[in-house]
Fold Geranylgeranylglyceryl phosphate synthase.
Amino acid sequence: MPFKNLRLQKHIPGRKHFAVLLDPDNLNEASCLQLLSLSASHQVDFFFVGGSLITSQNQAEIIKLIKEHSNIPVILFPSSSLHIDAQADGILLLSLISGRNPEFLIGHHVISAPILKASQLEIYPTGYILVDSGRQTTASYMSGTTPLPYDKPAIAACTAMAGELLGLQYIYLDGGSGAKEPITAEMIAAVREAVDVPVIVGGGINTTHKAKTALDAGADVIVVGNHIEKNPGFLAEVSNLIASYNVALDVHR
Ligand code: 1GP
């Protein structure tokens, strides 16, 4: 399997990363170019591209646009094998370990395996944990799974632990796009404590305070989509916040 040495793979404990989620359904060429220009002047580590349901036919065009205008790695965040695109750099191979739907635990992966194996995509095997954020999200409905209870950090920790023991190399705690409430600090800390692999956190991060709470609790990567679509300036705010953590890390080395 060829590896392109993306930064997610070369994870350094303590270093914080910022992923901007680009949902093809919510972008056109102009809004995408605006985000690419903002990202070029701030620290953005990855573009996650995808969504739980993509109704537009423009994912390929969006990825092409990113590749033409940016060097930031594009990582697919797919909800099915239909969303695999060889133009990207990598893919979160998500196993929905908070759910009990075999299609999202292994089914889609079987269909995708020969396509992925033949591709140049860097594969990130990821234990995906959907957390109940107060309202039913597209991800929960479309996957036909019950999200993990919001106030049960111990269940999240044991789920993450099981994922790591099964060999998954990343844990993604997600409240779902536009989540009413972000994942709690208690849950992030419990998961961070339970596993050694990088912990990705997203869903409902719409203030720098919420981003800081997630980072302080132990998130290695934070993902922001919705609020940046509504307020592109938020990209700069989160990027500056992330940079402040990484500067402190370098100073203490
Ligand atoms: C959703 O974690 C991502 O899967 C990002 O969520 O769109 O709420 O930022 P938001």
The chain is about 40% helix and 15% strand.
